[in-house]
Write a structure and sequence with these properties.
239 residues, alpha/beta, Carbamate kinase, nine-stranded mixed beta sheet, 11 strands, globular, transferase, pyrimidine biosynthesis, ATP-binding, Uridylate kinase, Uridylate_kinase
Amino acid sequence: MDKLKYKRVMLKLSGEALAGEGGYGIDFDVATKIAYEIKELVDLGVEVGAVVGGGNIWRGRNGKEMDRTTADYMGMLATCINALALQDSLENIGVMTRVQTAIEMKEVAEPYIRRRAMRHLEKNRVVIFAAGTGNPYFSTDTTAALRAAEIEADAILLAKKVDGVYDKDPHKYADAVKFEKLSYIEVLEKGLQVMDSTATSLCMDNDIPIIVFGLDEPNNIKKVMLGENIGTIVSKISK
């Protein structure tokens, strides 16, 4: 059996990743593809937690007239919809999954309880953390960092539409340079769009490496777990 680099991980997916080419809503073919990639990890014996954003359903305030707190709560509900969709896709292919929410909605998901979440992981169940932290003004990036620290994850796998971290947008600039390794401090000082500053600082304080990679390439999640040098690694030391 191949040697795993990480035993327990937090997978952070954007809501847009579930939307596919349509850019809005949920593309269940895409959700199924992601589910199969997660299944590969589970079959390897990796314990997987996941956080999904809600940007494919709700992007926040559409105008200055909307209260920020209300808009953030609406975003939290959007993450719950995505979490249930991903759970359904996983269970359709035989992967035991639990959704835990920071805002209680016991008819559709478990409330977030750290010890229960860790027990699910130990039983090889995927745990999807929804509804953010339960508080406005905190992003799903911060949720991923916080839950990763709480469940003692070995790393955060940050799946994006680009294959790593660049010094500028590679979709707009042909001369954009990709970083193989970065330190948390470099990310913060350069203002690189890896995770928001709160999430990056939380990872730095708890020494949780962030591996940024492209989701579109097949088997990339598995490649990361087996230690292949893809994407960008953010950790204490960049050299």
